[in-house]
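tool_call predict_complex ligand=citrulline
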Amino acid sequence: MNTFHQYNETDPLKKVIIGRYQGYRAEEAYVEIVNEEQKKGLPDVQELGPEFESFKHHLEARGVEVLVPQYVGKFVYDQLTPRDIGITIGNKFVMSNMVNQSRRYEAAGIFPMINNMKGEEPAILLPPGNDILLEGGDILVDKGNIFVGISQRTNEAGFDFLEEVFGDRFNLVPVYCRSLDEGKNVLHLDCTFNPVGRQHALIYPDGFREVPGIIKDEYQWIEINAEEQAELATNVISINQDTVISRDHKKCQRVNDEMKKVGIEVIELPFDAAPATGGSFRCCTLPLVRA
Ligand SMILES: NC(=O)NCCC[C@H](N)C(=O)O
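tool_result ok
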């Protein structure tokens, strides 16, 4: 399990980095408010610990190898959402070029783990130039496609870079997310779209400027409403095609029930603190191996 491997969002999760809560907001002087959710207030470390420990326990109980980033230092106040630091695509790993200054050194916390992995050389790719912006929460690899959210955090240059590197092996699909100016708070693509099960996808169609044809054709939709989207109901993590971990939260209940109706086992865990910073289970994980 030492080779980067990810071809589908719902393939069995074998090795994953999850968020680090220890050291969160250790020094207030370095806190940067980076999204709309955080303007409403930030959670306590006391709330984070039990939720992340329980999450880790449930992943390990299902046979997933779980890694936690090293502590970078007090100037990186938030290491809760490793998803955005990079993305495993096929047998390669793409480092992100992140928008927010306070997130840019998060890579240091996962680098020893990434560097320890094998892959198709060059296995670790760095986007060239500062104009290319991309974050892992905007990128979904599934069924031969790479869906790339053009969002608050990823731009068209980020899409072009991925197309150049992977266009010979994958079908690259740009997905234009509605912006704050258009009245929608879609931080990343995974806040509005996420494949689950064999052929289903959780989707908040109003989060898109236009839903790409392939998302209409290839997936059976479980639609999310605005209130559910605000609680990050799409942002579940698949352990495999039959199992997801989702929030035990009243605004996620209907969506969890819909997934159960189509035969997906839903492990519902209390998880309120990380979502108050803008990220739920998908954001709090960075898969290295799904096989
Ligand atoms: N994929 C995601 O939507 N990640 C959530 C990121 C939350 C983090 N605090 C951020 O705003 O960058």
